[in-house]
Design brief:
271 residues, alpha/beta, 6-stranded mixed β-sheet, 7 helices, globular
Length: 271
């Protein structure tokens, strides 16, 4: 019993930075919700969370909080970023590596708020529909080096297609959400951020705000793969002044997927 009380005391001390961000009734609902997510190893449905705590009788109360509760999202995420920076600082050389990707979570009903249709990867099976309804999330988390490396997700944004946007909501692309998440992490991190993502996010709407920051912001470095359809150009060669607009790029090169047409050969190395 003493060990259980000590563990509960430690757990409440970890949650204490969030206490002032909720009303008193909201805080009473928030604590069992987060605690159930930690104790539940399955899909984190409301029923499974409450079953893991033995609070099945409180199902309607917690569902009402999840459905109608409101809080400042950014204010809740900032203490999480500060806690991770203090307790589990992610460092890879001089950088703080953070990974971004998008993921889908199936929702079967068209009446669920914020869902959009997406292609099902397993739709080739005869008993699966080609399209399903799902929530699409853009998720960011810290990459903590070790054996093995750990991924600690801390921020997420819900995405809709523009033609499926709920009334009253503002449209944001996935790449715009990704750039915003990187900037939020940069504001709370002591070390410079290293964004890690796949080629889907290696586009101008993510790269441009990272490498050309506004005043009082740091540059965010990136680790990604070169897109097979990347537009590559030769450096702009000096030439005599001509009429018309000055070109910004040199001669167009073949995309990586057509690398056999490159004039230079591959070089191998070890890093």
């Amino acid at each position: 019993m003493d060990q259980a009380m000590q563990l509960w005391t430690w757990w409440l001390s970890l949650l204490s930075p969030f206490a002032l961000l909720f009303t008193q009734p909201g805080w009473v609902r928030f604590v069992p919700w987060v605690t159930g997510m930690v104790l539940c190893w399955e899909e984190h449905t409301m029923t499974q969370l409450l079953t893991s705590l033995g609070l099945e009788s409180r199902w309607r109360v917690l569902e009402h909080f999840a459905e109608y509760g409101a809080w400042d999202r950014d204010a809740v995420e900032r203490p999480m970023l500060r806690w991770l920076e203090q307790e589990r600082p992610a460092r890879w050389g001089p950088y703080h590596p953070g990974a971004i990707d998008d993921t889908t979570l199936h929702r079967t009903s068209a009446m669920v708020w914020g869902t959009c249709t997406c292609h099902e990867a397993s739709a080739r099976r005869p008993n699966r529909a080609e399209t399903v309804r799902a929530h699409t999330w853009v998720v960011m988390g810290d990459l903590v080096p070790g054996t093995p490396w750990m991924y600690l997700p801390h921020s997420a944004r819900l995405y809709w297609r523009q033609n499926q946007l709920p009334i009253g909501e503002t449209f944001h692309t996935k790449t715009a959400w990704a750039a915003a998440l990187l900037r939020q992490a940069e504001a709370e991190s002591i070390a410079p951020i290293l964004g890690v993502f796949d080629g889907a996010y290696a586009v101008a709407t993510v790269v441009e705000p990272c490498v050309n920051p506004a005043l009082a912001q740091r540059r965010i470095e990136m680790l990604t793969r070169l897109r097979v359809d990347a537009r590559l150009y030769q450096p702009l060669a000096p030439r005599a002044r001509r009429k018309g607009r000055r070109p910004q790029w040199g001669e167009r090169l073949a995309a990586p997927q057509h690398h056999v047409y490159w004039s230079s050969s591959w070089r191998t190395g070890q890093a």
